[in-house]
Amino acid sequence: MKLFDTHCHLTDSPLAQDLDGVLQRALSFGVENFMVPGYDLISSRTACRLASANPLIHAAIGLHPAWLTPATNFSPEPFRQLARLRAPAAIGEIGLDYALNDYSAAQQAEVLRGQLELAAIMSLPVIIHCRRAFEPLLLILREFPGVFGVLHAYGGGPQLAEKFLSLGHYIGFGGGLTRPQARKVRETALMVPVERILLETDAPYIGSHSVAKGESEPQDVLAVSQSLADLRGWGLAETAALTTANAFRLFNLPERI
Questions:
Q1: Which of 46, 84, 201, 244 could form a disulfide with 4 if both were Cys (CB 3.0 to 4.6 A apart)?
Q2: What are the φ/ψ torsions at residue 142 (nearest 5 degrees)?
Q3: Secondary structure element (H or E) that encloses residue 5, with its range
Q4: What mean pLDDT comes out for the span 167-194?
Q5: What is the distance between the alpha carbons of residues 185 and 183, in angstroms, rounded to a whole number?
Q6: Residue 85: exposure state from Cβ atoms within 10 A (0-12, 13-18, ≥19)
Q7: What angle in degrees, to the nearest 10, is found between the helix axes of 183-191 and 158-166?
Q8: How confident is the prediction for the chain on average, in pLDDT?
Q9: pTM of the predicted model as reported, rounded to 2 decimal places
Q10: How many other β-carbons are positioned within 10 Å of the β-carbon of residue 20?
Q11: Residue 129 to residues 81, 142, 232: CA-CA distances in angstroms?
């Protein structure tokens, strides 16, 4: 059984301080591939270094909306140079976040468009973060019909999911799926086509039914896989195989592991 954690922050504390232990624990649970997204230029460079050092790790590069300030003058050029030098698997994590304090919708939209343009130029998929901004996100994504990616840690419900699926995007499920009370997430997991589902942890940030927020690790993607298997009536090995194949396909990764 091979699982793929399609969103984990191995660059961040506490995971970065015990990276070897984190990876060994994950491997013991069947997790054999890890997508590490950047959220600014520094974390993107670090993710690329991790990927260069370990074939199990894959990097994404991008600027997260939470890292924007009024003084941010975004240019895609440093990320373009990094992409050409390091060949990341995706652009991300990028997106819109209207749950932030004192956010600028116009600034977030401008930065997102710049990074979607970069993804189009580099022919890379995208990893998308969205909170309380699904309709604005849909409008922007429709401007880039050749760019596909994953709505990570999706929580928008099945009706909105249909709209993203119609554009060719995948839906990522994390620890929320393990919570019996997470009705919208679980309803969505029941309707997403089998070939569009990805699994993730967003470790260490998003917890689960049994793991506290801030304490999750990539090994916990096994619990997400089990929850999906229970919901869909699939076997655990089948669920792992299907979702891992989806990740390899979206991120255009060679079957080297």
A1: 244
A2: -65, -20
A3: strand 3-5
A4: 97
A5: 6
A6: exposed
A7: 40
A8: 97
A9: 0.97
A10: 8
A11: 23, 16, 25
| Number of residues that make up the chain | 257
Three-state DSSP state, 93: strand
Q: Rounded to an integer, what distance in angstroms lies between the CA atom of residue 86 and that of residue 52?
A: 8
Find tokens 């991120």 and name the residue.
251
Residue 14 has pLDDT above 90, yes or no: yes
- pLDDT for the residue 257: 42
Q: List pLDDT tens digits, range 203-226.
A: 999 999 999 999 999 999 999 999
Domain extents for the chain?
3-250
Question: What CA–CA distance (Å, rounded) separates 12 from 38?
Answer: 10
Q: Which two tokens stand for residue 34?
A: 């890890």
For the domain 3-250, what is the CATH code?
Answer: 3.20.20.140
DSSP structure string for 175-244: GGGG-TT-HHHHHHHHHS-GGGEEE---BTT---SSS-TT---GGGHHHHHHHHHHHHT--HHHHHHHHH
